Amino acid sequence: MPPGVGKKATEDFWPVYGTEPKDLFKRLLDLVDASEEVSLSPGCIEGLLGFPDSNPDRAPELLPGILWEWIKTSSPPRGEAPVEPYFSGIRGSQKLVSIIWRAHIPQENTRLWPRATDQESIDVPITDVREVLRDDMEEGCVIRLGSDGITVERASRLRPGDQIVLPTDRGLMDQFGWNPESTDTVRDMSLVDYGLPLDAEAIERICGIPAAQTQELLEIVLNQFADDDTEISIDEQIGAVKEILSIIGQTSPPNWDRGEWILFVESLNCQVIKPSGEVPRLSVIEPKSDIPIDDLDERSLASIATELALHNEAVGIFAKHICACIGVRTDLADVIERAGRLHDIGKADQRFQQWLNPSWKQGDVLMAKSDTPQHRWQERRNTAGWPKGGRHEALSARLVRVWLNKSPGWGDSITRDLLIHLVISHHGKARPLVGPVTDDASLMVNSFISGKSVDASADLGIVDWEQPTRFWNLNNHFGPWGLALLETILRLSDQAISARTQLSLNQ
Questions:
Q1: pLDDT value at residue 4
Q2: Distance between CA 198 and CA 192 in Å, rounded?
Q3: Strand pairing partners for 186?
């Protein structure tokens, strides 16, 4: 058993969960002792493990109207019911805010880089945070992420669910988590995967080097001299970058192992990235992708470009395998496999292909992924003409609908609706609608499905207004948890295959 986290944690007792993890682990071991193979499909778990031993606190009644609000995840209504009382009970629920610590704190109305992740945040009761940060808020020093999860704004008062960004030198965290008494510098967990912000105050927080020592070098790197006549050559900029790296490479930042810090400094690319509205930086040579899902295709950046047909087939095969492992009915497994083989066919749009590869032309092999450097991704989207916020899965589903119209004998109404829904929702949208974007394309997108040629308008300003009804009917038929499970199989299959750097069908 791995240990819990916190001062009271032991092998037998975890904060929040108590002894339940240990008890559950023992039940699983007992099952393995009695059988060589144990099926843990959702339909079997209750019979194998029994009910939890703990007595749940009083919780509010989960009414159909509340559940219907919750499942509309792509367009949640304002004022939807909080979920905490249903998990923790009315008395046990706490209103929380999440906190991350960063070396660079953006100016108001600019974007946070790198993007915030769950892995670096902790949830803290809002009453505790209000008490500790009261003076900070009065001085206007507390910022939070806006509704887009990227742009920062000043927080004059805190609200449950806020995502707060604190400077690393503010402290308030130790090795066990939230600690209002701690004044130690907190490590910025985003740096190692993404890069170094080129900001004197941020570098001081990371390394302890006074801002004045790097300010002049940063002015050279960023060409920020007040005298507009001052010209900085590329060689001078690169030289200044190397000098900054030499200076910080000689330090031993708190919370960093010396060897780990040296590897990080050596991994930094000397090319300066200066996006509008974000901090200039040096990226690591192989950064993690932090492209906003709402703006770009979530997983179309890869270390190696991948062919579209190969990717689609691999996702279908993998999804069918998951279905077999968890006991999904054969007829439903067949629909999920077909959805996997069709989920990305909308990427055949010529604009999308030229976004992935600017030299692509009609007749070339269709690609699912791109090896384009991340810092050029937006530029290439603009050049290709793919509209900002456009969803390729909307085109995929449109092509599937055309094929279904040509195949009236395929499946009953629920099966046909499920196929369309799985395709259009595989990135988490279409619950219940994929909204339009500004687009006046007169282009067509085409594909082959089961030997039939299908084509449809590529205009992403067209909305599938039948999707909300389709979503409603599928939830009534499979239940909210049942439909979510079927979606999850396809989504996880896509993510698993997308994470592979190389694919071949015999794998």
A1: 44
A2: 15
A3: none
Tokens of 243: 């000098």
Contact between 392 and 368 (Cβ < 8 Å): no
pTM above 0.85, yes or no: no
Check: CB of residue 342 under 8 Å from CB of residue 312: yes
Tens of pLDDT, residues 469-494:
999 999 999 999 999 999 999 999 99
- Convert the pLDDT of each residue in 240-252 to its tens digit: 999 999 999 999 9
Least Cα distance to 184 among 194, 197, 175 occurs for 175
Tokens 């887009």, residue located: 148
Q: Where are the alpha helices (DSSP H) in 385-479?
A: 392-406, 413-424, 467-478
Tell me the three-class secondary structure of 59-126, residue by residue: CCCCCHHHHHHHHCCCCCCCCCCCCHHHHHCCCCCCCEEEEEEECCCCCCCCECCCCCCHHHCEEEEH
H helix and E strand count, the chain? 19, 12
Predicted confidence at residue 9, as pLDDT, reads 52
- Burial class of residue 233, CB neighbours in 10 A (0-12, 13-18, 19+): exposed
Query: If you search the block for the tokens 């009236």, which residue do you land on?
Result: 408
Residue 457 has φ and ψ, to the nearest 5°, of -65, 140
pLDDT value for 331: 97
> What is the DSSP track for 286-313?
SPPP---TTTS-TT-B-SS--BHHHHHH
Domains and CATH numbers, the chain: 1-53 (no CATH), 93-186 (no CATH), 188-286 (no CATH), 302-504 (1.10.3210)
**Quick one: pLDDT at residue 1?**
46
Query: What is the three-class DSSP state of 271?
Result: strand
Which residues does the chain have with pLDDT short of 50?
1-7, 226, 290-296, 298-299, 501-507
Question: What is the pLDDT, as a whole number, of residue 293?
Answer: 42
The pair of three-digit structure tokens given for residue 12, joined into one six-digit string: 């037998």
Residue 255 CA: distances (Å) to CA of 202, 213, 240, 258: 15, 22, 27, 9
